[in-house]
Amino acid sequence: MNPQDFEKLAALLHGRSGLVLGSDKAYLAESRLGPVARQWQYVDVHALIRALARREGSGADARLLDDVVEAMTTNESFFFRDNKPFDQFREFVLPALMSARSTSRSIRIWSAACSSGQEPYSLAMILKEMGARLEGWNIEILGTDISRAILKRARDGIYSQLEVQRGLPIQLLAKYFDQRGDQWQVKEEIRHMVQFREHNLLGEPPAAGRFDVVFCRNVLIYFDQATKAQVLAKVAKAMAGDGYLTLGGAETVLGVSDHFRTIPEQRGLYGRADAPTTVAASGT
Amino acid sequence: MKRCLIVDDSKVVRTVARKIVEGLNFAIDEAVNGQEAIEACRISMPDVILLDWNMPVMSGIDFLRALRAMADGERPVVVFCTTENDMAHIQEALGAGANEYIMKPFDSEIVETKFAQTGLL
Ligand SMILES: C[S@@+](CC[C@H](N)C(=O)[O-])C[C@H]1O[C@@H](n2cnc3c(N)ncnc32)[C@H](O)[C@@H]1O
């Protein structure tokens, strides 16, 4: 790929998704865009990028740019990825919200950049396992991603043997999956707990109202500082005053955004900076 | 140092598993079938058992039932590691007291997550 093509591609990708294409990624870009060029009937990747650049801003090729972005994203995900955030959700976040929301009995959860769905489904299984304790509660889980293709996979909820072995406890596989040949599908009772929707983190919130829990994991790492700050500001706005944000293991708000504060003794978990400092237990 | 008993009739699998589990800082014992594994557990109960299903002399599932009936036999974490990759086998294993279940082929990451999730690491 020639340097001009690469620069153009990097700019388009950054503008549309926030993703930063490192200069060592030219080879990767060439190999990932080959199939997209063929599918859109361009002779090669060079022709594809030229076409994109020519029609930039015209809106005519939004779908083409979407396909390019999709091809350049990293979609790797695991059930219960890193374990800890999910323990934290079960043992700290949920109890806190169940007491704070005991009147409305409603909790809204957003799994932002959810990729193929392992993250929102892990949360759904945790909630299902709570059983009677959540009876009568209205719990909403929204999974969003910029990639339409990955959301289709998420909705289908079908995973390979390798994927279900990376982090999913066997008891949960036995309880909440059906075997389909050599693949495994999340049961309807879990799938219907999660709604999936296309959404770009650079854009407006995916739904009206505030979320009590936001998982936004392993996506900020692909953005530059300015984009991270921009995305975190939007997430803060979409969050309830006493809501919780969970980031990925290599991500932090510190030095990036002052919309959040850390929560004592809860690593990787953040509350809104403007939230009341103590959770009022009394109803005064 | 925690101890892991690897039970598999294939020398290749035992060698691969040994490398992986040693990498997680466990001392390793090996057995080639369920009968040998019972004897090993009588001498000294390991912290975790990585267990094949199909083996001559005594199968993994028969071993597991015998183990859970032994004195102190409730203690070890038992992780099946087998080519039996269907729901019926998984349910049977869980019913007999298995803690985790790995479907072959497996790799070090899978073993590590399963060990972490059962509190071994
Ligand atoms: C590595 S996956 C993370 C999946 C999951 N959150 C986890 O931690 O396992 C990153 C996802 O971010 C999505 N993504 C990248 N840029 C995005 C954007 N601007 N808006 C929404 N999603 C985006 C990609 O499509 C990809 O599915």
TrEMBL record, chain A:
GO molecular function annotations of the record: protein-glutamate O-methyltransferase activity
Catalysis performed (reactions): L-glutamyl-[protein] + S-adenosyl-L-methionine = [protein]-L-glutamate 5-O-methyl ester + S-adenosyl-L-homocysteine
Source organism, top-level taxon: Bacteria
Gene3D superfamilies per the UniProt record, alphabetical: Chemotaxis receptor methyltransferase CheR, N-terminal domain (1.10.155.10), Vaccinia Virus protein VP39 (3.40.50.150)
Biological-process GO terms, alphabetical: methylation
EC number(s) per entry: 2.1.1.80
Protein keywords: Methyltransferase, S-adenosyl-L-methionine, Transferase
Pfam families documented for this protein: CheR, CheR_N
Occurrences of domain CheR-type methyltransferase (ranges): 1-262
Designated name of the protein: protein-glutamate O-methyltransferase
UniProtKB/TrEMBL annotation, chain B:
Residue positions, PTM 4-aspartylphosphate: 52
SMART domains: REC
InterPro entries membership: CheY-like_superfamily, Sig_transdc_resp-reg_receiver, ST_Response_Regulator
GO BP annotations, alphabetical order: phosphorelay signal transduction system
Domain named Response regulatory: residues: 3-119
This protein's UniProt keywords: Phosphoprotein
Pfam families named among the record's database cross-references: Response_reg
Oxidoreductase listed as a keyword: no
Keyword Phosphoprotein: yes
Name of the protein this chain belongs to: Response regulator
Source species of the chain: Ferruginivarius sediminum
